[in-house]
Amino acid sequence: MTPAILFSHFPFGKNLDAIRAHVASHHYAGVEWNLENWRVMVPRERRRKLLERFRAASGFCSVHAPYTDWEIGHRDAEFAAASLRLLREYVDIAADLGAHHVTIHVGAFGLSPEELSWDTLLRNLTGMLEHGARRKTPVTVENLRRGLTSEPETFSALLRATGAPVTFDHGHACGSAWVQEGKGSIADLLGAIPTTILASHLYLIEREDTHCPPQEVAEMSGALTLLRNRGCDFWVLELMSQADLEQTRRVVDAYLAS
Model-level pTM? Predict the structure, then answer.
């Protein structure tokens, strides 16, 4: 199994010509469109034109849904319902693009227990998964650096209850308090995931919202092997600068060559 190697559009901002050129010149399989800072417009014609430009830049893609201001598990039922409604729209956008999948965050930014409703989260995440199935576009949940998806016990409970597949973020896992405080390893986190690992975000570690690249193959080889063993063949290099992107690509290519 040779994984498909993609990159997040972050290093190139909204320069679609530069993104298209980088896909071609550096032989990437495609692009992940992170729509947190690039919202898609409501008017149908303007949306159609933007999605056409996305397709021209990269036919093969994934979508990362917006996350900072939406929470489908919020205790405020009205807020959770509004978040669900809007995130379903991004599933539709991903489906219209023919995206491989769409990734969402839940319990983002270490949402406090008093702000979260477990029952609402399970109900709304199940609704998201069902909508994705109707649109033939899988919805994945990403492990985060803080909050309920950062610890294996609560994350695995959520996945068992809903059957949600996962986008495994190596940098979030490495930077999580659970790993940093020595409670367990990246291998333990991966091993605790009971559902399909459909995709991965690859970089070494997230520190203060900065994605740091690996310098040596050994820093990530164990996790990459585990991902391959779990059948994860969709690897997104999620870096913030072109230099860090290509440094990570060199490490990943060296791992695959070995």
Answer: 0.97
Alpha-carbon distances, residue 204 vs 15, 151, 164, 221, 252 (angstroms): 26, 18, 25, 11, 11
Q: Quick one: DSSP state of residue 12?
A: G
Q: Where are the domains of the chain?
A: 4-246
Nearest to 225 by CA among 186, 192, 195, 196: 186
CA atoms within 13 A on the CB side of 138: 17
| Topology of the domain comprising 4-246 | TIM Barrel (3.20.20)
Instruction: For residues 215 and 199, give the distance between their C-alpha atoms in angstroms, rounded to a whole number.
Output: 22
Residue with tokens 């227990």: 113
- Tokens representing 55 are 């397709």
Q: Comparing 104-118, 152-166, 223-237, which segment has the lowest mean pLDDT?
A: 104-118
Instruction: Give the integer Cα–Cα distance in Å for 129 and 164.
Output: 7
DSSP assignment string, 86-143: HHHHHHHHHHHHT-S-EEE-SSGGG--GGGB-HHHHHHHHHHHHHHHHHTT--EEEE-
Q: Is the pLDDT of residue 1 over 90?
A: no
Neighbours of 126 (CB within 10 A): 14
Task: Count other Cβ atoms within 10 Å, centred on residue 237.
Answer: 26
